Amino acid sequence: MSQAFQLCILRLSAIGDVCHAVAMVTRIRRHRPDIKITWIIGKIEHQLLKGMPGVEFIVYDKKGGKQAKQAVKEALGGRTFDALFVMQVALRANLLSRVVKAKRRIGFDWKRSKEGHWLFTNERIEAKKYAHVLEGFMGFADKLGIPKDETPQWDMPLDEADWQWAKEQTAGLGQYAVISPAASKAERNWTVHGYVAVAQHLIKNGYKVVLCGGPGPVDAAISAEILATPDIIDLNLVAKTTLKQMLAVLADAKLVIAPDTGPAHMATTMGTPVVGLYAHSNYRRTGPYLSQDYVASVYDVQIKGQKGKEWVYLPWGARAKGKHLMTYLLVQTVLKKVDQALGKLDSE
What we know:
Elements: E1 6-10, H1 15-31, E2 36-42, H2 43-49, E3 55-60, H3 65-76, E4 80-86, H4 91-96, E5 101-107, E6 123-124, H5 133-143, H6 160-170, E7 176-179, H7 192-204, E8 208-211, H8 217-227, E9 235-236, H9 243-252, E10 255-259, H10 262-269, E11 274-278, H11 283-286, E12 296-297, H12 299-307, H13 331-341
Parallel strand pairs: 1-2, 1-4, 2-3, 4-5, 5-6, 7-8, 7-10, 8-9, 10-11, 11-12
Helix pairs in contact: 1-5, 1-10, 6-9, 7-8, 7-13, 9-10
């Protein structure tokens, strides 16, 4: 009897990126359930994905230093994998990949091989021009000859307890939309005035408004400012959910409004439309994958103003700089996208 193909995936962070990676893993599992998958993942990201069917997780705590690296090595138990996907170019991840024994060490193409990434691999995925991060990840599955799907699918693990918790919190709201206002970097966040205007617009159109976010100081500060306007937020869940509970809340929402942050991609995995708010990065590369038509962005104007060229003539992934770029995103621009996502306007 032939032994099962053993695949190790190394992708530690961040929430949005591991959501993209789930689509690739789901594709492999659906077409090749015989492949045994081991995923080395970050501690926080594991809280979202633990319990994913058919996947063994090995958790790496980046704050643990040498001991964390040794723990991963011990968890691997000296196994030799048929293939390793080195799906992160950061030096920390590259160095961690050295504890994994694998016949094929597959990494990114030359253009994306930063921080010595190529030194830790012996094969590279195919370069793709203007590829979304999710599509770039799919290049790893391509290297194994996995059949392609017409549209990505996500097997996100949600327990009945998570669904039940979300149902209890949102009971009585009826149709609701979620505003998740905070990214990890404050410069990615839109204005408080803008979020308040969106909430008021949603209320006028018969939707209740739920506020979501994590426990960090940026989340706390911007949510407090939004809540200072009375009678616009029906349910405040900032810092009150686990990642899985938040995922269940996002799943049942009619719409999610968020900047370039994890919840936008979490919502996408559940099929919920997202109005993404962008200025610093090209939404074609990092925006909510299934809601590209609903993105409100000033990136194109900002990058041309800074570089003197249209984005198509710049390196893929070029970012616009500046702490106040999101202030150039007009309320009316966002409201138009909200209406479009809710089916009130024809798609452009």
